[in-house]
Every structure is written in structure tokens, then in C-alpha cells.
Amino acid sequence: MNIAVLIDLLVPGGVQKAAIEEVRNLRTSGHKAELFCLTRTRVDYQYEDLLKGIPVRYLSDRNPLFLQRAVKIPFFTFLTTNHLLSPFLAHRYRILKDFDLLIAHGTTTCPTALAVSRHFNVPYAAFIWDPMGFILHTVYRVTPLQYFSPLLDIIIRLVERRMLTNARLIVAPSSVHKRALQKAYGIQPIVIPPGHDFITKRKPGKRTYILGYSRWQKEKHPDFFLKLAQQVNLPIVLAGLWSNQNDLKALRREIHEKHLNIQIVQPVHHKDIPRLAGRAIVWVHPHFEAFGMPGLELASQGVPIIIPKGSGVTDLFKNGVHGLFPPRNERALIAAVKTILENPVSARQMGRKAAQVAKAYTWKAHTAKLLDAISGRMKENPPATILHNSFVTTASIGGGDRFMIEIVSRLKPRKFTLITPEIGLYHWKKSKAINVSYKLLSPSIFDNNESPLLLFLAYLIRSIQTIMKLTFLPQVKILISTNELTPETLPAYWYKKTHPQTRWIARIFHLVPPPTKREGNFLVNGGSFLLQRASLMLMRSCDRILVDNPFLKQELMKLGFPKQQTEVHYGGVDVEKIGSYKAGKTEAFSAISVGRFSPHKGTFDLVPIWEKVIRTVPKAKLGIVGDGPEDLKQKLRDQIQNANLKDHVKLLGFLPHGKPLFDMLKNARLLIFPDHEAGFGLIVVEAMSAGLPVVAYNLPIFGETYKKGYLTAPLKQTDTFAANIVKLLEDQALHQTIQTQAREEVGKFDWNRAARKFDRLLNRLSQE
């Protein structure tokens, strides 16, 4: 792999040491790796002894000339203008575009890693040593920044959530911040402790002093050693680099004034650590640390360690066995030091045991574990994001809406993120899909309403809400819009344009005819036609268009869509489940019709057809399953009343998919499908699976999609339609022949087969 390791500043610290060692060990193991710094900085010690053979590049060199020099932000220890500006200059860091992965160390580098990832489609791993909020409330607790903490908290949570949720992998050095990140953001970081490279133990010799070794700053309480020196009769060596020289001067002054036996040693190079450990009785650190890398380094040299309870390094060692981990107060720390000094034999045993444990935590082992985690995560298919926002009510669901629900529930190894309104959640939850995480749109006053105007307003609101949801999601690799309606195509188009690397799969069921060729309200039909044409213009930007029949593919090609952009993906049916289903007792009907009430679905052809049927078959009964706007339901009731068919036609309302509907299908003789336009007709294949012959108008799907198992009549020819019903009701041999054909036909429409085909498409697009 080609890996870029990113830090903010090349200053002394555990984060920088970890990044350097990762680059070294990645290169040793055959990978190409380089170290990148956000900005140049001037300090006395920049790990010159560790950087031999390590290529270092500075991203700030690629900034405009007047932005290359970093200016320190007031009140912050390390934050500079380059930390804030680098994410906005990420397009200039083209040097990173050919890497397979970025490893961003520290929260201040992750925003830049996110921006680089967005520009060049390079995934990144976020190694979080200290979350931003933790730094704000510990390091800067007693600075003027405390007065701005409520506002800063809001900004930090927004930035941190976004950079973490977009990371391919999140790593913490210990359980300390793993728990914090889980609680704050609901994410699951993996823990990979830092390492050391001190393979040989220190030489035996007289141990004469207490060692404090760290990168010191006021917040790490170096003044603790002033109090310790007054309690013990041994020298104290305070080693390490200082972030603020004024703090060091103040400490030196106090040591001198109080005549304390404390020696300040600085600077300390990496190679100096074994020498410091050689005469150390114990390593003491008074500050709680998310990890505490010097503790691991000194333990590797056989020095027992003392650090406040709960610090990250204590994940690796046991209290009382490898050192002492007292509560976070000075009295307890001093008591722990005295315990070590009063028991030298026990202290040496602790040191030897600590060294044995530390053997397992080398930088080589650290890098290998990190690489394993990266490799595993890179092989995983990123979750596809589904937009399913066009639900009308909870009362019913169309076959087109069920397509994605059925497919996803059968692709359990894959993970999906679903953006949907609460109405959609109602239908999705019934599928019991365990591989879906839900992002719900807030309800609006226009939801659950079938009025065309109110539905349009609901769709408009959902479009805006979806764009907002997508903004805060991790970068989407594959985006799926489940149909061509506005609340799905508009957000999908926007996301595709702003994230060109994303692969967009769009679905369409059928083309809406012009309003002059469609039954129903002219204005409503005209609006539907124009909105679909607008959606089709947006869908020209998608990577694949899925249609549910070959005829529709041809129609789209006539509109200028490329042949290779369009694929036929049939709906399906659980053939075995429905075919073997044992029906419960329910009212039996000669024929059954299933679908939403609408003029273009042929709802108002049903009564004229059945009037003709009962002239020949007087006892024939029709069951109508479905729902729709109240005005259409009333119109249908009036039709039945005026035709005097109350004893022959029964409105059954909406039946949930499953047992109630299957019972009705299994107890019927045939399905009538009076739709004037249809893309697939899911109820057709479900009825065939239940052993029902189908009577329909001769739509393109009969002949293109379905080859047998039905009888058809010319569109709107209710006489012929009724005659076909009569044939199947009276001619048992014909009924059995068509029934056998229907059962043979459904084999190619199995949901499992459809799911496998869709999965292959996702795999292809993931690799593009």
C-alpha cells in the first residue's frame, strides 16, 4: 500500500514519535510510506535522531506564499493559522492524491484529512489521541478560553462528528478515549496502544533517583515534584522538553529558592532514555494521561511506573504488579512513591515484570496491528446510502416501493444507511432488515396526506431535509434513489454534483404519459408529467438507471439515455414462501384485484367489467383490495351502488403484505390487473406464484416481462377483458393450463435472484 502519515507539527511529543515509527515500520514491511506535516515550525529538537531515512514533506510549502508561515492563535499552545486554513487549501495538496490511505494523527489534522479525502477520494484513518472537547476542558480549563467554552463546544462537536464519521477507520490509543468517543458520537474506535523500540534492557547498576520524564507544560503539574522533593530524601531528575520556557524558568527559580534536590535535564533525545532509566528507581508522572507513552518506554527498561489510576498506559499493566496507580491527588501519589522507596526488592520485581509485558508492545507490533485493521477495513464494502422518501401514507405501499425493501433485507452481509420519513420507517421496519441504519426525516404538517398539492409540499420539504442529512453523513460511496420522484432525485443529483466520486444508482418504474393521454385530473397529470421530465434531466448525471422491464429501457434510449447506462432489474417474489403457503380460512372470491385506487390503474374499469361477467356467471364475486383518496373511494362505492353490484363486488380495503393478502390470493380463482400503465406489476408475479392466472390489458410488460400465465385484452376494451375472465371461470382445462404456465413463469422472478444481481452491480460500482 501507498500510505501518507499526517501530523500537524514536528515538535517533541508522543503523537509525532508514533507517526515517525509508523512510517519507518511501514517502509520496513514493504509498503511505501511518507511523513507529512501541516506546517513547518522552529523548535530546538525535531526528532533528528529518529528521522534518518524517513521522508518528510510539509503541506504548508504548497500554500500561497503569504499563507506558508504559521501564526500562533492566542491562548492556544500549538494551534496556528495553518491548522485552520489547511482544510480550505486541500485542493492544493495534490501530492496526496496518489496515496491509497492517509493516517491522520491528532484531532487538529483530521479536518485537513477530511478535506483531502473529499477532493481526491483518498480514504483516511483518524488516530485520536485526545478529542477536541477533552483538550478544551483539561488543557485550557483555567485560560480565558473557558469563557467561550459553550460556543466552542458546539463548534467542536460539529467538526469532530463530521471528521470522525467520514473516517474509514478510527483508532484510539487506549480505552480512555474509546469510551468517550462511543458516548459522544456512537462510534466504535479500535484501540491500538503506542509502542517502543527499546529491545535491550538497561544495564544493572545502582539506582539512585526518582525520574520524571515527559514533554512538560504547566498543565502536567511539574510543580508536584517540588512537594515530592520535600517528602523524600532522594534526588529527583526531571527530564524532557518544555512547551513553555517561562514555565521552566519559574520552576528553576523555585527549586533554587527552596534548595531542592531536583535536577532539570533537557533536551532529552530518544537515545537518552536507556541512560536515564539506568539509575532510575521509579518513574513518576503526576498527570492523568490518555495514554502516557513515557511510562511504556520506561517500563520496557525495567522501571516500575507510578501514574494516576485510569490513565491509558494502565490498560497494559496491573496495579501492584508492574507499578502503582493511585487516585488523582498529590497525597496518594506521594504515598505511592514512598511505598516504592520503602520496598526496593518489590520495586525491582515490579520493574522486571513490567519489562516482560512491554515486550509485546513494540512499534513493529503497533504498526502491524494498525495495518491489519486498515487492510480489513479497506476490504469492507462501505455502506450504500438509500433515499426512500416518496411514501405517501402508512396505509399502503406500492410494488415499486417494496423493491428496495425486499432486496436490502436479502443482502445481510452489506450495510445500508436509509434516509426516509417516519412513514417510510413504518414500512421498512416490517421487513425486519438488520443491516440498515435509519436516518429519519422530521415529520411535516403535509405528511400522510394524499392531496396532490400537500403531497408536493411534503416532497419539497423532504428534499431539503435529505440534502441536510447527506451533508452530515460520511462520504457516500454509493447513493441509491429508489424512484424518479423529486425527494429522491433532487438530493441525489445535488450530492453527485458536489461529490463526483460518488456512484449514483437511480430507479424508474415507468414513464408518465402526457396529460392529454392519461385519465384523471388534467392539472395533476400535467404536474406529474413535468416533474418526471425534470427528474429525468437530473438522472442523466447518474451512473446507472435501473428499470423493471425491457420496454422501458427502450423508451429511455429513445429519450437519449445511453444503452450502457441503463439496466433491467426485475422485481421478484418469494416463490417458495408463497407457493407453499397454507391459506387460512377467508372469504373466497372468483377474482381479486389489488392496487391503489387511481384512474390510470384502471380502478373504474372494474365495475363495468364485472357487470359483463355476471351476465354469464351470475354467482361470480369480485374482491377489491386497495385504498386511495376518499373522493376516489366514494366514486367507486357509487359505481357499485348504481350498477346494483353490492352482492357481487366487495371492497376489502388495504391488506398488509403477508398473511392477510396471501390468504386472499390463495382463496381466489384468478387475479384481474386492470392497470392502464405499469412498469412491472409486482402483484402479478405474486399472484402467479400463488397459482392464479392473470387477466390484464395488453400492456408492454405482458410479452416483454411476462411471457405466459395470463390472458390480455386491448386497452380499455372491457368487453374482451370480461370475456377472458368468463373463459377462465368456466373452462377448467384452460384455467389449469394458464395456472401451470403462471407457476412456471415466476421462477425467473425470485427475490433472491434479484438480490444477487443487485449485489453484483454494487460490487462493480464499488470498484470503479
UniProtKB/TrEMBL annotation:
<dbReference type="Pfam" id="PF13439">
    <property type="entry name" value="Glyco_transf_4"/>
</dbReference>
<feature type="domain" description="Glycosyltransferase subfamily 4-like N-terminal">
    <location>
        <begin position="12"/>
        <end position="197"/>
    </location>
</feature>
<dbReference type="InterPro" id="IPR028098">
    <property type="entry name" value="Glyco_trans_4-like_N"/>
</dbReference>
<dbReference type="GO" id="GO:0016757">
    <property type="term" value="F:glycosyltransferase activity"/>
</dbReference>
<dbReference type="InterPro" id="IPR001296">
    <property type="entry name" value="Glyco_trans_1"/>
</dbReference>
<feature type="domain" description="Glycosyl transferase family 1">
    <location>
        <begin position="201"/>
        <end position="356"/>
    </location>
</feature>
<protein>
    <recommendedName>
        <fullName>Glycosyl transferase family 1 domain-containing protein</fullName>
    </recommendedName>
</protein>
<dbReference type="InterPro" id="IPR050194">
    <property type="entry name" value="Glycosyltransferase_grp1"/>
</dbReference>
<feature type="domain" description="Glycosyl transferase family 1">
    <location>
        <begin position="588"/>
        <end position="744"/>
    </location>
</feature>
<dbReference type="Pfam" id="PF00534">
    <property type="entry name" value="Glycos_transf_1"/>
</dbReference>
